[in-house]
């Protein structure tokens, strides 16, 4: 209870045994928190004399920028929804910008940013080059990364998911069903999330005594066409896989299209697992087994880091939210095991 002026939302979450987004929901009076959890969080808040947004950290203009590479994807919609929810509850505005690989986009965005006195920038699966970062630093605008592309700077707060654990859980689920030839359609190889999910996939195979086979690994760009193309290549192998772990739900949807075009039944002939747990997973046929990552909570927490003024010295700058496997109807034992 000393250092009350420096207690952070993450401290409260740790003491209460809950996630930081849950603490944020309690602070904002949201209904979707169990009564016993709400009581426990409120008790910890009182014990620490937690003061939200102390006067020294009041946003000057009440504005946060969210920069994202692609706007028209289900993943982006969830990130925008989480950021908008958190900003609305905090009484601050949100500006959403699409910055593609074209550096002209980034320069135009920085020009606009300089004129609107933003209180913080959320950079979601996007990147700034060194000159752009230096210009942002010169403006004195705090930066928080959401699902960073590569290894983030230790001095910059970043919010992500336990991607390695998610890849492990997805693959262990398939191994547990009896699959031995398990393919992976991974995302872009330079992305931190891709590397982690691939690492979890390989670890699960090795734990089961299965040697990862290069011919069962394909890379794509996270979108359905790449998943479709990769699945068709896998089907053309002399010994096709009995299961596919797709690095994103969108890639899994592409794999669905490829398998169905060849008359391959899911999961009777080939099982499929995705990653993200987008809303559409319940609506495809069959409903997709997938790894859930808490995209809305990731964005909410990133906004909270801006509101809290960043992380204290000694606090972890990298925060990873837990993933979990959601089992639906797209996985089953391989045909030979039935």
Question: Mind explaining what this structure looks like?
Answer:
The chain has helices at residues 9-16, 20-27, 35-47, 74-90, 103-116, 130-139, 163-176, 192-207, 224-235, 249-261, 295-307, and strands spanning 63-68, 93-98, 121-124, 143-146, 158-161, 182-186, 217-219, 243-246, 271-276, 289-292, 318-321, 324-326. The protein has eleven helices and twelve strands. It is an alpha/beta fold and 338 residues long. Helices cover 41% and strands 16% of the residues. The strands form two sheets. A six-stranded parallel beta sheet has the order 2-1-3-4-5-11, sandwiched between helices. It has a six-stranded mixed beta sheet with strand order 7-6-8-9-10-12, with helices on both faces. Pfam families: LacI (PF00356), Peripla_BP_3 (PF13377). One of its GO terms (molecular function) is transcription cis-regulatory region binding. Keywords: DNA-binding, Transcription, Transcription regulation.
Q: Helices and strands in order, then pairings?
A:
Blueprint: H1 9-16, H2 20-27, H3 35-47, E1 63-68, H4 74-90, E2 93-98, H5 103-116, E3 121-124, H6 130-139, E4 143-146, E5 158-161, H7 163-176, E6 182-186, H8 192-207, E7 217-219, H9 224-235, E8 243-246, H10 249-261, E9 271-276, E10 289-292, H11 295-307, E11 318-321, E12 324-326
Helix pairs in contact: 1-2, 1-3, 4-11, 5-6, 7-8, 9-10
- Report the CATH superfamily of the largest domain: Response regulator
What share of the residues lie within helices?
A: 40-55%
Please trace the helix and strand order, writing H or E for each element: HHHEHEHEHEEHEHEHEHEEHEE
Under the CATH scheme, which architecture of the largest domain would be assigned? 3-Layer(aba) Sandwich
Tally of individual domains: 3
CATH topology of the largest domain: Rossmann fold
Mean pLDDT comes to: 87
Write down the overall geometry: globular
Q: Count of DSSP helices?
A: 11
Largest sheet, spatial ordering of strands:
2-1-3-4-5-11
Question: What is the rounded distance between the termini?
Answer: 59 Å
Q: List the uncertain runs.
A: 1-5, 54-61
Number of strands: 12
Strand content: 15-25%
Main β-sheet: number of strands, strand sense, barrel status? 6 strands, parallel
Structural class given helices, strands, pairing?
alpha/beta
CATH class of the largest domain equals Alpha Beta
Rounded Rg: 22 Å
